[in-house]
Design brief:
Catalyzes the reversible phosphorylation of UMP to UDP. The protein contains eight helices and nine strands. By secondary structure, the protein is α/β, with parallel strands linked by helices. The protein has a single domain, classed as 3-Layer(aba) Sandwich (Carbamate kinase), CATH 3.40.1160. It has a nine-stranded mixed sheet with strand order 4-3-5-2-1-6-8-9-7, with helices on both faces. α1 packs across α3, α1 packs parallel to α8 and α5 packs parallel to α7. The protein is globular and about 45 Å long. The N terminus is likely disordered. The chain binds adenosine-5'-triphosphate and ligand LLZGTKA7. The site of adenosine-5'-triphosphate has 20 residues, from loops.
């Protein structure tokens, strides 16, 4: 068992799911097989007794910062980005239901004809019923990311941890996709992640997690059973904790 093995069970968690993780090997958008695999992981974790809230990114469709670079004003570009996360949220809701587990997509950007709006009370109610909650729309505000949204939801819902499911198997000394000499941390503090400017999550997300003493487990979502492995502390991962 690795160093990030939980000393107590992570009963309620927020899984931060990268939008890019949903595109599989496609250049963008959604890959049905990848969606089904991740949905099965989420459904299995809920069936094992964990309360699962998911905050989904939108990078497989749109990132505000890129839109702004190509001339769309930033706040408007971020609105497009938030809509992208709702598209992912709806697809994930359907995929989790396809695994026989009830799911509810709640959007921080109200769109009542499409899905329920996010509220803490509604999210807690659905979690209590054993449903997988998918918190889409990030924080509902421009100039933020879904990483910050994930930590925000974890704080609001008194979650035991944020599970950052991404394309790399932990936090490295530098971006491992760009620097092959980067080495992986087994464990580090929020302070260290901020001071070293480790860009696996944005500083606002790390700072909010530090303030609320929320542990973050960074792990790869590439393989089946990844979420169960992160919950059990048996997978390769980095624990960011006080
Ligand atoms: N020090 C680092 N350690 C690990 N990964 C890093 C580091 N610096 C940058 N990264 C990069 O950060 C990425 C994690 O961000 P992720 O893919 O989860 O994006 P996101 O913006 O949260 O989601 P989306 O795909 O929806 O945009 C990794 O894929 C990795 O390439
Ligand atoms: O609180 C938020 C969260 C997200 N956005 C916008 O959405 C995209 C996609 O989110 P990722 O976290 O990058 O996957 C993001 O680039 C922002 O443009 C937002 O405005 N507010």
């Amino acid at each position: 068992m690795s160093d990030h093995a939980p000393t107590r069970r992570y009963r309620r968690v927020v899984v931060k799911l990268s939008g890019e993780a949903l595109q599989g090997s496609a250049p963008h958008g959604l890959d049905a097989a990848t969606l089904a695999r991740i949905a099965a992981d989420l459904a299995n974790a809920a069936a094992a007794g964990h309360e699962i809230a998911v905050v989904v990114g939108g990078g497989n469709f749109f990132r505000g910062i890129k839109g702004a670079d190509s001339g769309i004003e930033r706040a408007r570009a971020d609105s497009i980005g938030m809509l992208a996360t709702v598209m992912n949220g709806l697809a994930l809701e359907q995929a989790v239901e396809g695994q026989g587990r009830a799911a509810r997509c709640l959007s921080a950007v109200p769109m009542p004809s499409v899905c329920e709006s996010f509220s803490r009370r509604a999210a807690l109610h659905h979690l209590d019923k054993g449903r997988v909650v998918i918190a889409a729309g990030g924080t509902g505000n421009p100039f933020f990311t879904t990483d910050t949204g994930a930590v925000l939801r974890a704080a609001e819902l008194s979650a035991d941890a944020v599970l950052k499911a991404t394309q790399v198997d932990g936090v490295y000394t530098a971006d491992p996709k760009r620097d092959s000499s980067a080495t992986r941390y087994e464990r580090l503090t929020h302070d260290e992640a901020i001071a070293k400017n480790l860009a696996v999550m944005d500083t606002a997300a790390f700072a909010l997690a530090r303030e609320n003493k929320i542990p973050i487990i960074v792990f790869s979502i590439a393989e089946e059973g990844a979420i169960a492995g992160a919950l059990a502390g048996t997978s390769r991962a980095t624990l960011v904790a006080p």
